What does this fold into?
Amino acid sequence: MADKLIIFDTTLRDGEQSPGASMTREEKLRIARQLERLKVDVIEAGFAASSNGDFEAIRAIAQTIKESTVCSLARANDRDIARALEAVAPAPRRRVHTFIATSALHMEKKLRMTPEQVLDQAVRAVSFARNSIDDVEFSPEDGYRSDPDFLCRVLEAVIKAGATTLNIPDTVGYGVPALYGEFIHMLRERVPNSDKAIWSVHCHNDLGMAVANSLAGVKIGGARQVECTINGLGERAGNTALEEIVMAVRTRRDYFDLELGIDASQIVPASKLVSGITGFVVQPNKAVVGANAFAHASGIHQDGVLKARDTYEIMRAEDVGWAANKIVLGKLSGRNAFKQRVQELGIPVESDTDLNAAFTRFKDLADRKSEIYDEDIQALFSADGVDGVEQEFYKFVSMSQYSETGKRPSARVRFTVGGAEVNSEAAGNGPVDASIRAIEAEVGSGAEMVLYSVNAISGGTEAQGEVTVRLTKAGRIVNGVGTDPDIVAASAKAYLSALNKLHDKTKLNPQTAEEDNI
It folds into this structure.
C-alpha cells in the first residue's frame, strides 16, 4: 500500500495575507465549503488571535465543516493557543498549529530571545495545547535557515511534549529542491523520535521553486504533508500551489507512489472561486488552472492531439474540472438547464436565492452576448456576482460614455450610495479614467489606485472583460473585481466593488495586524 500524502490548505490563512486578499466571514465560508468538496485533508481557517473577525470566521467554519480537519494558527503562547482552541472547538476534526521562530536572525532581531528561551517557550506551548487537543502541529518559523543542531533539539523536545505534526517552513523562499529535500531528510535522521510525528513542508515561492521544493521535501525528505494554497495565493510571490502538487503526484504516481484523497475535478471550481473572491486573476499560462493550460496553438501539436490525445497532454482537462463542452447555453435556455450546467461545473451555490439572482444575471448577459461560455457562467458567481449583492453600499446601475479621437472622453455613471441613487459625470484621459473620476466626484474616497488590470474571460470580440482594481487607503489594501462585455462598465463595477470593501469594516487586512507569519 502506498503512503497517503496529506494536503493542508492554508488559502484562508497564509493566502489571505496577499495584499487586498482579505475576506469576510461569508466569503471564507464559501471557500471552506469548496475546499471540503475538494476533499482537502486539513483547512487552516485563519489566525484566531489576530482579530475578532478572524476568530468568528474560524468558528463558523468549524461549525460547518464535517469531513476536513479545521485548524487555527497560534503563536507559541497560552493566549493565542487558548483562542485557537476555542475557535476550532465545534469541529468534529480539529487542530491547533503553533509556531515560534528558530533562526538566529529571527531570534536576535525579531524575538530578542535566547535560543534556550525559544526552546522553553516552544515546549510550553505544545504542552499547553496538547492538554486540550490531540492534534497539535508545530512549526519552527524560518526553519530552513535555522542552525541544524539547535533545530534538532527543538524538534525532539516538541515531539516529546506532544506535537503530532512537525512542519519545516522555508519562510522566505530561500531553498532549492535538492538541498531542501536533503535538509528534511537530515532532520528526520537526526531527531531520535522523528517517527512519532508526521513531517510537513511549507514553502514560499520567492525564487519560483515552492512546488519543486515541496515535492523534494516529500520525495527526498520523506515528508507526508504539504502545506499549500489554491492558485499559489500568498504574500510576496505566493505559496506552494495546491493544484500543481496534486496533479504532479497524481500524474507521476510511478515516481512518488503516494495516495491522495483529493477530488481533482473540484480544482478548477476552487480556483475560480478563490480568484473571484480575492480579485487575484489567474495568469493564462498558469499550470493546471490557467486558461491556456490545455490549449494548443501549434499546428503540429493540434494534429498530434487530434490523432492521439496523450501525444501532447499528460492530464485530461476534465479531470481537474475544465468542461469539455464550451458553448452550452443561450438566451432561450431556461432555469433548469442553467441550474444543471451550474451543477456540472461544480459551482458552489448556497441557496435558491443565490441561484435565482445568478439566473437573472445570466439572462441579462444572454441578451447582450450570443454565445455563453462556461467561463461566463463562472463569472456570474464571482465576488461582484450574487454573493452579498443586497448588502452592497455602492451598487452599479448604468452608465454612458463618450469617446472620440482628438476630443477629451467623458462618462456619466449612475449608481446607488446606501440605497439612494446618484448620477455623476466627469472627463478623463480615456473612458475608463472618466468613469472612475465620475464615481470619485460623488464618493470622494481619497483612495489611491495601485493596480488596474483587464482579463478576457473567454475568446472572441464578444468576450466579457474581467477588471481587477486594487485600492489602498490608511494602511488598508483591497481588491475589487467587475465583469461586463463593456470594459468601461466592468471598470466602473470593479472600482465600486473595491470601494465596498473599503467601506465594509468586516474585511480587515490581515497584514495590518500585529502578527508573525510562517
Q: What stands out?
A: The first strand starts at residue 3 and ends at 4. Confidence is low (pLDDT under 50) at residues 383-390, 511-515.
